[in-house]
Amino acid sequence: MNNANLEPVEHVLSTLKSDGSRRWLKPKLSIGNLLRFRRWVAWVLIIVFTAIPFIHVGSRPLVLLDITARQFTIFGFTFLPTDALLLAIFLVGTLLTIFLFTALKGRIWCGWACPQTVYMEFVFRPIERLFEGTVRRGGLPRKNVAAWRTFAKYLVYFLICVYLANTFLAYFVGVDRLSRWVRQSPLQHPLPFLVMAAATGAMMFNFCYFREQLCLIACPYGRFQSVLLDQNSVIVAYNEKRGEPRKKGIHANGIGLPIAGDCIDCGNCVTTCPTGIDIRKGLQMECINCTQCIDACNQVMKKIGRSPDLIRFSSQARDRGLVGGLVRARTIIYPFLIAGFIGAFLFVLSTKSTFDVVIMREPGNPYVVIDKGRIRNLLTMKLTNRSDKDMAFSARVLEPAGGELQFMEDKVLLAPRESRSFHVGVIAERKEFRMGKSNMLVQIENDQQDSRMARFTLMGPF
Description:
- By secondary structure, the chain is an alpha+beta fold.
- Helices cover 39% and strands 19% of the residues.
- Strands 8, 9, 10, 12 and 14 form a 5-stranded antiparallel beta sheet that branches. Strands 13-11-15-16 form a 4-stranded antiparallel beta sheet, with no helix packed on it.
- Helix 2 packs antiparallel against helix 14 (329-350).
- The relative contact order is 0.10.
């Protein structure tokens, strides 16, 4: 069989060779104004990513995604299992905000603010260049690297991954619990230790092996860009009209010579790309708007005496000579939808009480007949304390007339954020039932003078 027939007929992934093997990317560093600005942004974001678990709004953390307790605290507001509607509104509103930002600024999140890019390009790759050395300033890594340098590189990688794993876990378990885990022996908390070890291993796998493939293969954002972007969204683009036709080396057009574009086909825009693409081929899924190709090309243009921005921020409409602007369907519809979801979120939030109540029927007989022919229904009342204080509850039956509610527990007391079920009996006169049913209205009140009404249907004889 001819192996040439197995080669793909078109581009598949920038990290794959034609035979399907991994193409390892070690991009050349192109220092320019955009890279310097990105460095400042990256270091500020690293500080922010690390500080968020330590920041509190009042008595609550800024962000805590406590899965085991089924509580999600975001910007100081805690979503409980009973807040499914609030959480759904918040998430949809967040997605719409991402859609709006992408329609306006393209994939600038991926290249400038995504934690994967920030840590990969401004922590791990610089360490790699430090230990492996480079050919010329900011050039490609050397081919022959001493074994001790490789060992030292991975040792530093491991220490950084331990830090990143602990920072990541702090978002899910909180800094207080995490600090106890760190200080204690692994034998005292084997399961949390395994969780920390697994998170560290995942970080090592990602930054040592998987690397840019997380953006190209695992992250869905690149595949969504055909939907999220439009013709006027900001992208990094090569000015084909100015750059073509390409000609190797420094050249100048003269009488009798074929006209050549400004692109001298040096390949710097390709060797500096962290995802390994050629930006001159147009908009591609792998482009994350990191702007390294802009810095690389501007350096070359300066050396050959040409104007900068052969590669620059642009849009598909601009590249085709069309007139575009900020005002278009997406930039009008998205803000209206976002405003609607913000309004819905605030409305639902304003109607929330300091506690939640759910009434359910106990399994078994739906009712029993007790003294003087009265009917008793056995129910379960689930109460959730949404506040940060202890809360005691009392309840009384408003309907049917003469109804009586009995708690089976001595004290109906809940700790902050606690959710518990209580067994209750509701007694009603037989005459209150019609066709075996009676509507019940219960008022539940806490010791903070906050009350809620709950309706339920009692069962009884026909």
